[in-house]
Amino acid sequence: MKQEWRKHEKAFYSIKAQPSLIVMPPQNFIMISGKGNPNKEDFAERVGVLYSLAYPIKMRYKALCSMNLEQREQFVYQDFTVYPLEGVWTSSNPDNPLDKDSFIYTIMIRQPDFITKEMFEAAYKAAEQKKPHPFLKEVVFDTMEDGLCVQMLHKGPF
User: Where are the beta strands (DSSP E) in the chain?
Assistant: First the structure.
């Protein structure tokens, strides 16, 4: 059975017209931090580096499960849908928090609970050899626990 976040985690990823409270449990992510305008090349490079790891993690896990019967039986899912890009944003300019050049951010792609740090490290080593990139060394695998959050839909310009 394929784990699809759109179906299995609607409470976290569906957008409602009215703001609501949700409790976000601890979740694993691959993350990279940066600063500056998200419309510039630096941001796009960081996004690209995250995806250059997210898909190999997925494919390596799928290959591991299909080749190793013991591994396949250990996990409920044999495949999963890559999660969407998420981000946490702030500004280094309190006088003008909308100044995009002052943005400080951490962008991330969630990983299913069964993806381990060791699986991340294996994909990282492969990506480092196959497609080296200066930002690759800035990517980390970590857990975030947001707890109680407000979920709301933004309408209007970004």
Answer: 2-3, 20-24, 27-35, 79-80, 85-91, 103-111, 140-144, 147-151
Please report whether residue 84 resides in a domain. Answer: yes
Residue 15 belongs to a domain: no
pTM greater than 0.90 (yes/no): no
Query: How many residues are listed for the chain in this entry?
Result: 158
Looking at every residue in the chain, the average pLDDT score rounds to 87
Average pLDDT of span 11-22 = 83
Do 37 and 103 meet the contact criterion of CB atoms below 8 Å apart?
Answer: yes
The CATH number covering residue 43 comes to: 3.20.80.10
pLDDT exceeds cutoff 70 at 2:
no
Q: What domain range is 93 assigned to?
A: 2-6+38-151
Give the closest residue to 60 by CA, choosing from 44, 82, 36, 41.
Answer: 82
Q: To 10 degrees, the CA torsion angle through 156, 7, 118, 125?
A: -60
Residue 85 lies in a domain: yes
Instruction: Note the pLDDT of residue 74.
Output: 60
Total of domains in the chain: 1
